Amino acid sequence: MAFLEHRLIFKNIDAPGYTRDIACYQKHGGYEILKKGLAMGGPAIREEVKKSQLRGRGGAGFPTGTKWSFIDPAKATKPIYLICNADESEPGTFKDRQIIYKDPHQLIEGMILSCFANGVKLAYLYIRCEFTEGWKILEKALAEAKGAGFLGKNILKSGYDLEIHVHRGAGAYICGEETGLIESLEGKRAYPRIKPPYFPAVLGLYMCPTIVNNVETLCNVKHIVEMGGDAYAKIGRPNNTGTRLLCVSGDVVKPGYYEFPCGAVTLGQLIHDVCGGIPNGRKLKAVIPGGSSAKVLRAGEVYKIKEKDSQGNLVDREVKLEDLRMDFDSLAAAGSMAGSGGVIVMDDSRDMVECLANISTFYAHESCGQCTPCREGVLWLKKILSRVAEGHGRDEDPALLKDVADRIAGRTICAFGEAAAW
């Protein structure tokens, strides 16, 4: 059975004849939604985003409308900042860069609408330093937008002023964590902040109210303004609205990036029907469903999850791995998470110890070192797993691994340590 994508954000990505310049973007209706949004007013946009039930696409899945509501532009006594987190560094994730490289004006239009809705006059686009071409593309696109009157002073004669600056990171994975990103943007070492009190909405950039959203989230805002929050909420499933960008890599016939309504496909349908199945007649062994920070799910496992029946009552249901829906709630109920949308598929030829040793090497290298349980514990995980993978494991190593992981989880400032311990 073939599954047709519902391309909303990826509508123009790889479309024949589509180019990333502003002329092509406007030819396809670009910046018309900005005009609509400016006419609606900021409070109306915020209300539509709330109605849409949009959840952040950066990893945690926190409701965007709720996140925005922590800041009241009418009562703000300090400047309000917005930061686009384009520091896409999660292993297995490659969706945001498609937008940056192929449709940058969609992101910029979404950013402008989001800034206008929240009374932001200065915004930053924090991009991973390895995206050298992407940085140049964004700089050019911002210059085009400013030249056309969509940025700068008195945008489209609305009286609204906005400047957006691109800031390149220095290659640290921890800068994907919002407070670590803010520290980096301020010119400091990217040590995540303690929350509370340092919630970005209260004490963010330069100790001012700050909104941090990722690329996919901000692109969604444009489409919410276009169709309305209620219409957007009808896409996907309850509490899992809109479309989701999925990046599939590993042992599949057709790895790539796809877009479906949240929960429209199961993990098995994604692997077998969308991505052509597992090559060479191999069988599925395990899946990481949301980037390397998500818990590994094993083939053959059965999960008890709660779902609403036809009468709207919550009922317990047993679900096999391949029947799990690709949405926030279903994956969370299985003990993992939707995360960044990076689906890594492993067949039965893979040595799971080698896979985990590889992942632990990444986390040991990328730990910022601020928290002792993470700094020391993740290095222990790496050493133990590497030793086992090389054939020098000891009988006590499995118990030691669990003990070290348990001593990391829940004892760090940010979620990095827990992601490594999973």
From TrEMBL:
Which UniProt keywords are given for this protein, alphabetically ordered?
A: 4Fe-4S, Flavoprotein, FMN, Iron, Iron-sulfur, Metal-binding, Oxidoreductase
Write down the Gene3D superfamilies for this protein, in alphabetical order. 3.10.20.600, 6.10.250.1450, NADH-ubiquinone oxidoreductase 51kDa subunit, NADH-ubiquinone oxidoreductase 51kDa subunit, iron-sulphur binding domain
Q: Which GO terms describe its molecular function?
A: 4 iron, 4 sulfur cluster binding; FMN binding; metal ion binding; NADH dehydrogenase (ubiquinone) activity; NADH dehydrogenase activity
One Pfam match, given by its short name, reads: SLBB_2
InterPro entries, sorted = ComplexI_51kDa_subunit, NADH-UbQ_OxRdtase_51kDa_CS, Nuo51_FMN-bd, Nuo51_FMN-bd_sf, Nuop51_4Fe4S-bd, Nuop51_4Fe4S-bd_sf, SLBB_dom
Ranges for domain NADH-ubiquinone oxidoreductase 51kDa subunit iron-sulphur binding: 353-398
**Which cofactor does this sequence's record say it needs?**
FMN; [4Fe-4S] cluster
Q: What biological-process GO terms show up in the record?
A: cellular respiration
Might you give the EC number(s) for this enzyme? 1.6.5.11
Which PROSITE patterns does the protein's record reference? COMPLEX1_51K_2
Instruction: Report the family membership.
Output: Belongs to the complex I 51 kDa subunit family.
Q: What is the protein name for this chain?
A: NADH dehydrogenase
Which species does this protein come from?
Verrucomicrobia subdivision 6 bacterium BACL9 MAG-120507-bin52
